[in-house]
Amino acid sequence: MRAPVLVTRGGRAEEVCTEAAAARLAASLGGSLATFEGSGPLPHVDERARYAVAVLDFLDRVDGVATRRAVMQPGSMRPGGSVRD
Prior knowledge:
This protein is an alpha+beta fold.
């Protein structure tokens, strides 16, 4: 049995992995691909909210259960930050 796989990549020119290479990887694993056009190689940092929603959407497709959509707010990831920032 194969595990569900979500391949993510940034979409900026300096991105390490090309769209074609990421698509081949996702296809070879039987997985999905999500590209974040406004991001570099760290979409989970550069586009935190969109990334979280993409992961939740993927998990919803995999397990068929709608996940609560509470996403961290800006400032919550900076040193000393909190969700109240």
